[in-house]
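Cont'd.
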Amino acid sequence: MSFTVTLSNKPLPPLLEEQVRVRLLAKERILVALVGDLQLSSQYGNSALVVTDRRLFCVEENATDEGFFIDRRAITEVKVRRLYGNAVFQVNGTTVLRFSFAVVAFAEAIATFLSHMAKDGANEAEELNIITAFLEKKRCICPKCGRMLMHRGAPCVNCMNKGHLIKRLWQYMKPQKWRLLFCLLLSALTTTMALAPPFISRTLIDSVIPSKNLTNLYYLVILLFLVYAIQHISGALRAHHMRVAGGMFLTGMRNDIYRKAQYLPVTFYDKTSTGSIISRISGDTNVLLNFTLRMSQDAIVQFFTLIGIMAIMLFMDWKLAILSLIPIPAVVIGSRIFSKKIRPIYQRTWLRWSAISSLLTDTLPGVRVIKSFTAEKRTVEKFEQYNNEWLKEDRKASVAASIFPNTVSFFALCGSLVVWGIGGNWVMTSNNISLGLLVSFISYTSMFYGPVSFFANLSDSYQNMLTSAERLLDILDAEPEKNFGEGNNVQSLRGRIEFRHVSFSFDKVSKTLDDINLVIEPGDIVGIVGTTGSGKSTLINLLMRFYDQYDGEILVDGQDIRTIDLESYRSKIGFVQQEPLMFRDTVFKNIAFSNPDAGIEEVIHAADIANAHDFIVRLPDAYDTVLGERGTGLSGGERQRLSIARAILKNPSMLIFDEATASVDSETEHLIQGAIERLISGRTTLMIAHRLSTLRKANKIIVVDKGKILECGSHEELMKKQGKYYRLIQIQNTGDRHLDDIMR
Amino acid sequence: MNRIYLEYDNARITKGQDDNFLDVELFSGETYSGLEARRLFPITGSDRYISLLNEKKEEIAVIRDINNLMPDSKAAVMYALQKCYLIPKITAYTVVMGKGDKISINAETDHGPCSFEIRGSENIKVLYDGRVLFCDTNDNRYEISDISTIDKKSRNDLLI
C-alpha cells in the first residue's frame, strides 16, 4: 500500500517507512508524522510517531516488538515532558516516544493538536493548521545554519558565498581605490629607486674607479643622491596616503560594527558578553589597523622589491641567482606550518582576553556592590587568575611568534653565505664574473632576503588579522533584529492589545510563557502582578519586540506586531524600566534622548510633569549638570523621574512601566506616582508592580503565575474571587501592618 | 519554608506507572505519583540533592544523597535519573570547523552514533575534574569524560 506524509518534520527513512507501511490499515490516512532521533531505551536511532485519521502509533527502527498503538478515540491526555537533554511524548500517562530537543517543538505542536482533538467539537482541518503553521515557520529557517530567514526561501546572509575574507574586507578599502592606486605608483617608483644603487655601485667598482674618471664619479654620486632623494620623498608620500586610507578603512568598519551592534537582537546580547563586543570593537579593529598599516607601509614595496631583485639577479648571473634561491622552499614550507600552529593560539589568547574584558565590564560599574560585600579580594583574585590564563596563552603565542621569524632570517643569511662562498671562488678562479658584479650581487641577495623574511613573518600578523576579522564579521554578518514589516509604518496607535495563544521559551527546556490569551482595550490601565520569575517581564519583552521567536500572535490595533515596521512601532511606546539607565551626558540631553529635536521648554515641561524639575533646579548646573557614568550623582528616585520625563517627551501612544517604583522610598514613590498619573491619562498603560499600591489607578489587573494568566479583572472582581490576587493583597496588608507596628 | 528532605527510610520511592517517573510514599503517609527527579547540581554533584517535582514543576521533596536511601528506593531513583538525564558520553569523534563560530561534531557515544553542532566556545565547558561538556544548538548535552583523551588537533579545533 502506498502512502504520503505531507506533514512531517523530515521524510521517513526507508526502513521506518516500510515499518509504517506494514502497520497501516486499509484506507487509513496519515495526518502527521514525527521522525524522532532517539529510541525509548535512550539509544540514538530513528523512531516515528504517526497520527492517522483513526489511530496513533509509534515505531522504532529495527525494533522487534509491534510498538505502541492506540485508537484516537481512546486518547484522553497527551503531553510532552521535557527532561534533561531529551523529552518524552506521553499518551494517557504512558511514555510512547523519546526524542532529543532537536524535535521537541514539533512534538509539542502534535501534542497540542491531539489535545484539542480529544475535546468535543474540535475541527480536525482547523486544528491541523497549528501543525502546518509550525512547519511553515520551520521552513523559514536556513537549513544550513539555522538562522531565521526574512521569508521562506530567502537567501541566508550567513551562508551566502562571500568569497575570501580579504575580499570582504576589500569592501571597506574600495572607497579609497584611487588613493591606493596613487600609492601603488609611488611604490613602483620607490622600489625602482631602491634597486638602482647596487647597479650604480657595480659600475663604480668595475669601470669608474679603476679608470680614475673623476667626472663620471661625480656624475654617479649626484645620480645616487637623486635616487635616494626620490626614493625617500615618494616613500614618505606613500606612507602618508596609505595611513589615511587605512584610517578611513577602520573608521568605516568601526562605524558599521557599532551601527550593527545597535540593531542586533536582544538574544545576541543574551548570549554574547558586552565585554567580548567591546573587545571586538576596540581590540580587533586595532589589530586590523596594525595589519593594514603593515601591509600599506611595507608589503607592496617589499613585493615590488622582491620581483625587481629577482629580475636583476637573473639578468646579472642566473647561476648565482639560483644558488641564492636555495633556502626559499624551507621558508615557504615553514611559513605554512607556522600559520596552522599559530591560529588556534591566537584564538585562545583572544578568548582569554575576552574573559578579562567581560570581568572588567561586570565589576567596574558594579564596584559599589563589590565594596558592600567586601568582595574586593575575591574580585582581584579572579582578575589575576584570568590575567594569568591570558599570559599563559600569550606566552605560547610569543614563543611561536619569536622562534619562527628568527629561523627564517637565519636561513636567509645562509643563502648569502652560499653566494659569498661559491661566487668568491668563481671571482678568484675564473674570469666569468667581476668583483663589482659579486659585490652588487651580494647587496641584492641581502636585499632579496629582506622581502622574503618580511613575507614569511607576514603570516603571523596575517593570522592574527584573520582571527580578528572573523570575529568582526561575526558581528557584521549576525542577523539583525528581524524587521519583517519594514516600511509598514504606523502614524499612531489606539492601543488595543491582544495576545493570542502566545507561548515563549528562552532555553527550550521550560516555557516562560504558556498559551497566553489576553485583550487590553484602548485607554486601559493594566496592572500586571505576580511573583518573581512568573513571566511578567517576558510578557512586556515580547510586546516591546525584544524577542520575536514566540508561538502565537500579539496584535496591536488588529495588526500582528511582527508585521509593523520595528522602528515605527517602538517609537509609539514609552518604556520606563526599574533601573533607568542614564548616559554620561547632561541632564538636558538625558531627557531629550527620547526626542533630540525637542525644544528647551518642551524638555522643561516634561521634567515638570515628571516631578523632576524641582530637583534639577537645585543642582548647581541645573539642566547642564553632567551625570556620571550610569547616572551617578543622582538618587534612584531622581533617575527614575528623569526616565519618566524622557517617556513624556516621546509622547507615546502606549506606556509600559516595569516596576518603576520598586526601588524607591515611599515619599519618592508618591512623587513618581504623581508623575505617572499625569503621564498615563488617555493612553493604554501596562504596569508591572510588586507594590500593589502602585496599581490603584488600574482598571484591569492581570495575575501571572508560572507563565500563565491565573486571574484577570478589576481590583474588586479579583478581591471578590479570593484567589491569588486576594492572597497577594492579604500578604502585603499584613506586611504593611507589621511596618506600621514597627513605626509606632 | 519547610522543605522535606528524604533520606534513609523516611520515604519509600518506587518506579511510577510510567517508569521515567517516581512514586513516593512519605513516612507521614502522604503519597505522590509521577514525580520527576531533577538533579540540583547536575554537573558538580550528580548523586546529591535530587529534587522531586510534580507535573506542575512544584517541588515535593529533596533527596539529600541517593546513597543514603534504602536499596530499593535508591535503585528506583537511579533508574529514573538515568531515564530523565540524557548526557551521552562521547567515545570517538571527528571535529569539523564550520563557518564563523560553528563547530560540527560527528560522534560515537555510549548511546550510539550522532552528529551535532555547537555555536560558540561558551557552549564547551572544561570542568575541574577533566570532564568536557558540550551543549549543542538544540540544547542537547554531551560529555567527554577526560580531557586528556582529546587529541591535540581536536583541542585546537575546540579551542580548549
